[in-house]
Amino acid sequence: MDAPCQKAGQQLPASRLVNPTLLTLATQRGDLDCGGLRHLIIGYGYFNAYVLPIPGGHVCVSFEVDSDPVASSDAIRQAIERHLA
Description:
Layout: H1 13-33, E1 40-43, E2 47-54, E3 57-64, H2 69-84
């Protein structure tokens, strides 16, 4: 699902640059002494982004500001794992 600030068919720099960079930084921090990284949740002004690292990249799911991405995180991760299996 495209984020509200994204035009149909276009990939914002967040998908190509920002999210991978944030994942790299958070993964490095998680690997130090936190037991790794499960996911990132980024609270933007117009939406929340749930970013899940997968082999070779990441998946980003956008949520309305008033929703709770954590409540859906297990279901999203399980669906992606089934798809990648």
